[in-house]
Amino acid sequence: MPFKEGEKLIIVHYGELWLRGKNRGYYINVMKKNLKDQLKGEKYSLKQEYDRLIMTLSKDSDIESIRDKLSHVFGISNFEISYTTKPNLSSINKLSKKLLAKMKDKKIIKVDAHRSWKGSKFNSMDIIDKVRTTARRMGFEVTNHGYDAVVKVNLTKDAAFVTADKVRAQRGLPVGTSGVGIVLLSGGIDSPVAAWYAMKRGIFPIYLHVHGLPDNKDVMDSKMAEILKILKKYSMHAKIYTVPAHLFQIKAGKSGKYELVLLKAFMMRLAEKVAEKEQARVIFTGESLGQVASQTLSNMTAEAYGVNTPILRPLVGFDKEEIIKVAKEIGTYDESVKPYRDVCSINSRNPATQIDIDRMKELIKEFDVDKLVKKSLSSGSVFEV
Ligand code: ATP
Ligand code: MG
User: Quick one: what percent of the chain has pLDDT higher than 90?
Assistant: First the structure.
């Protein structure tokens, strides 16, 4: 029997990945690689079984740390912290009783069972009936709706797994399966959330930040480094291009009400150059249509003028409240609201709200934005977090 009685396991489920037909193997392999990367230094062993991964833990495994790390891996829909026993009804019942005894804070429970191996003499309903009876005798109310905990039994040929601790994970696609994307990252609330949505659809993000600080190094001493550390929990690695805004400001500071939209055009063009270097196929921003006076459709169109790399704006349909809710869930909100000298806020006094493409073309020429992009990029730095 490959599983030892009483062993602690984590059963990892990957939901959506199963829908991906021919590419399924690829998605699962990347997810496994990410999971191993995420759990570097932790004590466990891993094997694939049926449509899930099984992690075996040892006595010195740090379960809280593993739990936290696993909950940040995209591609995992949920995981169950489980115990093993022999694949017969009385062993299953005994283990369930032991787990139920630890659930004193719960009153109403659901009992669920699944057979990955159908060769047993009893079926899922027999397991459910048995455990339900035990739970009722222990004083629990048992129902299928409105419960506060679930006890779930998984039956395989060699062992049964019982879990009372199911953890919802990130879902989505494994980071990297959709290639690399450049994320325009500001110090605000929105762009870290946009980065998270990009990662959720399998993008490995490389960040680009335009700053108004004296030195590139200063960015890494600011809250930007803290935001990056949080985002890194989801992607395991984080790389950022920091580019100073001063060359732009000296020259295009004279463009008056167009300065903000021109700064955005400058950022998009910078992002395209970084995308070329990094073989990225897409640019992400945290813009949301109409959120501030300058985020109009005509400004968004104009700032993207001449940029051939697709620009995706995952938050385009979000209200600020909805964005804040996600920012809190993913853990970036508290850092995002800390004070920071963002270049956009310096530049946003009375900005133009309706700029057409012809005016944009003139401005880009007049202020020689492409030269500014080249010079500024060569004054930038790259950091790995
Ligand atoms: P955020 O909360 O992300 O700062 P915002 O609502 O403040 O967004 P803007 O300041 O207009 O809106 O910025 C819109 C988007 O432009 C940002 O989400 C980000 O993708 C990009 N951006 C803004 N400032 C910078 C910057 N300094 N460096 C890189 N990208 C930036
Ligand atoms: Mg901002």
Answer: 84
